[in-house]
Amino acid sequence: MKSKQKLSIVIPVFNEQDLLETMVTNLIGILEEIEAEPDILLVDDGSTDATPETIARLCSDRNVITAVTLSRNFGKEAAIHAGIARASGDCVLVMDADLQHPPSLIPEMMAAWQKGALVVEAVKLEPVRTGLVNRLGAVLFYRLYRRLSGLEITNHSDFKLLDRSVADLYLQMKEKHRFFRGLVHWMGLDAVQLTFAAGPSYARSSRWSIFGLIKYALNNISSFTTLPLQVITFMGVGVVLLGAVLGVWTLGDKLLGQSAEGFTTINLLLIILGGAIMTSLGILGHYIGKIYEEVKDRPDYIVKPAMKDREGDGP
Ligand code: UDP
Ligand code: MG
User: Fold this and answer.
1) DSSP, res 176
2) Are 100 and 205 in contact (CB under 8 A)?
């Protein structure tokens, strides 16, 4: 008889004491309905609430659950990476711990994979961010991302099922600044898309601060395009052309005996040029910073080593 296929489920978890247990209970209920051997990896991304105890309890109650504990908070992307690196399933599913990604969609996702899909992605029916600033930010991010990188990931989520071969491709990528959704889409493999209405994420607000989201958005955009660097060149050419026109004009004035006037013009030029130069340096600095981070080749997460009992080894 053919043995059951193994389904690894990677769940990044950061301070989810209120929802995690409900989420895992729901998930296990759904998994009982499908013909697959489950392997649930709860990646604790340095939680500071009662999440570690909840994870420990869940692990001792159910042997299909494994805990991966990061030494501190490394961010969701690192947690996803840590989980996928430890997932041994024939397919790997990634989902949030806060009930925004409904486990009820898993049977349909599995069915699509069993029919041969390499990537099954759950796409949000509508944006889930609440609050005007967050919503505007999300719209702006997806537009900019599409314009600059040429990849369309509007309303995509991290709720994805990857075939083993795709998980391996993801692991082969060595970059430190990871953007799971973007990387999977960038691979360009045919993906089956299923839509879902994201749950309300009941008892808690998003784990992202506005500043954190802006940093995440900028990093994700620059990971997929170097267009901003080319924009600097165009800006430079524009300034040179403008300078040529102004230069001819000023020289002409001088030759005609009219003294070049315009303290205001000089002031404006200084401000515009100063601003353009500083912006360009900022863009260059951002990319250099990223090169530095990549060259250092530090891992993007550290898994807490298991505690050792050294007491018995004394002299
Ligand atoms: N998360 C994480 N590390 C973090 C922030 C979030 O592992 O530093 C996890 C979190 O526990 C949840 C998922 O990533 O399972 C999505 O986080 P959240 O719901 O706050 O993000 P949003 O839904 O607002 O995108
Ligand atoms: Mg959420």
Assistant:
1) S
2) no
Query: How does pLDDT run across 3-21, given as a tens digit for each residue?
Result: 789 999 999 999 999 999 9
Q: What does the block give as tokens for 265?
A: 């013009």
Q: What is the arithmetic mean of pLDDT over 87-104?
A: 95
pTM of the model: 0.88
Q: What is the mean pLDDT of residues 156-178?
A: 96
- Residues listed for the chain: 315
What distance in Å separates the CA atoms of residue 47 and residue 69, rounded to the nearest whole number? 9
The pLDDT assigned to 2 comes to 61
Residues with CB under 5 A from ligand 2 (ion): 98, 100, 201
CB 207 less than 6 A from any atom of ligand 1? yes
CA dihedral (182, 188, 192, 195) positive or negative: positive
Highest mean pLDDT: which range of 26-30, 209-213, 259-263: 26-30
Give the ligand 1 atom nearest the CA of 96: 15
By most ligand atoms within 8 Å of CB, the mutation choice from 21, 40, 98, 209 for ligand 1 is: 98
State the Cα–Cα distance between residues 140 and 146, nearest whole angstrom.
10
How remote is the CA of residue 149 from the centroid of ligand 1, in Å?
24
Cα separations in angstroms, 301 against 75, 93, 100: 9, 20, 25
pLDDT at 313: 58
**What is the C-alpha separation between 67 and 44, in angstroms, rounded?**
7
Distance CA 195, CA 125 (A): 6
- Decide whether any atom of ligand 1 lies within 6 Å of the 46 Cβ: no
Query: Parallel, antiparallel, or unpaired for β 65-69 and 37-44?
Result: parallel
